[in-house]
């Protein structure tokens, strides 16, 4: 397991740095107001890519670690495909409705709509990447993850060589179009790998996925509010230059979050295998979570020590103040990493509805808390709210996870 974590953890750091290169280049090419718009859209694009595949990756991990027959596994693989598609169908209309309502408040509607659809397409590529990751195919995982940002950087470099004057829209489209193309190729490879032909009759035979994907989609939607709620709210409270500084800090913190998410996805299949074989499941979860947290803490300390040097190399001096925000936001990301493990533990028990109820309740509280903090104290108060919200989420999720496992008897 350790070798697997190191390989995929190193790959995740590489991918995170490559993805941050877009923000670094944008900070040199765009004025602060345009940079703020781009980062807002780019954050939505990245978060939604992960949100759309939430239920699918969890279901895939459970399938791969169970003792299923080949025919049953094929049926379950089909349900994984449709879980992802159905989640997209549930979430997209909700997001578009929200954007339609917010268009009267100065939101860059066209850019954000493009980010939503690009995020939906990106999820296709991420789903393929997770399939090959769970199957241990390191080369295919690296290719599927590195190809989209590499082509996108090439696209931006080509336009820059032509002396194109970038706006936030132009820059985002140059980034998103190669990613969408790679995503379609990845999805074709996924269907070919699993051997699934999309047709209506197969979809009708996958009715059991509807309930799972609906609750997973609802959970994912409110989890995205938890992840990006600070940036949504501060859009209405900060000026363009201030918002750009905070957004860069949030993206810097999201590098750490991306590494944690990839780490979680790498270790959860191993946890599921151990849970299948264990008779003392809660004790196993406690031991596993402690080791996981210590590893996350080590990554957190490395991040804090290297942040000054990293920012001074890749960002203009005018954005150096983002370091202060990024350090504190990283604390929230560390807490979020612990929550992710306990949410996976709940989903192992096939309780998506329970997790969704927790997420909706805590998510609504977190949104109200963030708005109140932004109104009373601006960005500094919102950073406090970000960590506090995730801490509440962690405590509630771990409490219900413990209730599920302590009460069971495994023979």
TrEMBL record:
Record organism: Shewanella atlantica
Record bears the keyword Transmembrane: yes
Membrane-spanning parts: 5-26, 38-58, 79-102, 108-128, 140-160, 172-191, 212-237, 243-263, 284-305, 325-348, 355-377, 383-401
Protein name, per record: Lipopolysaccharide biosynthesis protein
Keyword annotations from UniProtKB, A to Z: Cell membrane, Membrane, Transmembrane, Transmembrane helix
Domain of life: Bacteria
GO cellular component entries: plasma membrane
Membrane topology: Multi-pass membrane protein
Location relative to the cell: Cell membrane
């Amino acid at each position: 397991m350790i070798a697997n974590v190191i390989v995929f953890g190193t790959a995740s750091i590489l991918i995170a740095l490559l993805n941050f290169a877009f923000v670094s280049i944008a900070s040199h090419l765009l004025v602060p107001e345009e940079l703020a718009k781009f980062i807002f859209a780019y954050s939505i694009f990245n978060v939604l890519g992960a949100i759309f595949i939430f239920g699918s990756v969890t279901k895939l991990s459970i399938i791969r670690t169970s003792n299923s027959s080949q025919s049953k596994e094929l049926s379950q693989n089909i349900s994984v495909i449709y879980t992802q598609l159905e989640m997209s169908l549930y979430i997209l209309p909700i997001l578009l409705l929200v954007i339609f309502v917010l268009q009267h408040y100065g939101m860059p509607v066209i850019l954000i709509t493009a980010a939503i659809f690009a995020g939906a397409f990106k999820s296709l590529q991420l789903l393929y990447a997770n399939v090959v990751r769970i199957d241990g195919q390191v080369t295919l995982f690296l290719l599927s993850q590195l190809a989209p940002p590499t082509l996108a950087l090439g696209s931006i470099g080509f336009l820059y060589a032509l002396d194109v004057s970038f706006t936030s829209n132009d820059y985002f489209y140059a980034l998103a179009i190669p990613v969408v193309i790679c995503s379609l190729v990845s999805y074709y490879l996924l269907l070919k790998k699993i051997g699934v032909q999309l047709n209506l009759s197969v979809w009708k035979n996958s009715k059991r996925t509807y309930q799972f994907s609906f609750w997973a989609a609802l959970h994912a939607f409110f989890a995205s509010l938890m992840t990006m709620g600070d940036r949504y709210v501060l859009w209405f409270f900060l000026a363009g230059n201030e918002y750009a500084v905070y957004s860069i800090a949030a993206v810097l913190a999201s590098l750490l979050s991306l590494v944690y998410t990839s780490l979680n996805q790498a270790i959860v299949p191993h946890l599921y295998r151990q849970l299948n074989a264990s008779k003392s499941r809660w004790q196993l979860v406690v031991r596993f979570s402690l080791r996981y947290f210590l590893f996350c803490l080590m990554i957190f300390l490395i991040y804090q020590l290297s942040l000054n040097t990293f920012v001074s190399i890749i960002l203009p001096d005018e954005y150096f103040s983002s370091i202060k925000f990024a350090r504190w936001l990283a604390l929230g990301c560390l807490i979020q990493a612990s929550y992710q493990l306990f949410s996976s533990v709940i989903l192992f028990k096939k309780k998506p509805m329970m997790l969704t109820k927790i997420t909706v309740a805590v998510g609504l509280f977190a949104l109200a808390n963030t708005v109140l903090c932004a109104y009373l104290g601006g960005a500094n108060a919102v950073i406090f709210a970000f960590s506090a919200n995730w801490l509440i989420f962690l405590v509630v999720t771990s409490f219900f996870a413990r209730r599920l496992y302590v009460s069971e008897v495994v023979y």
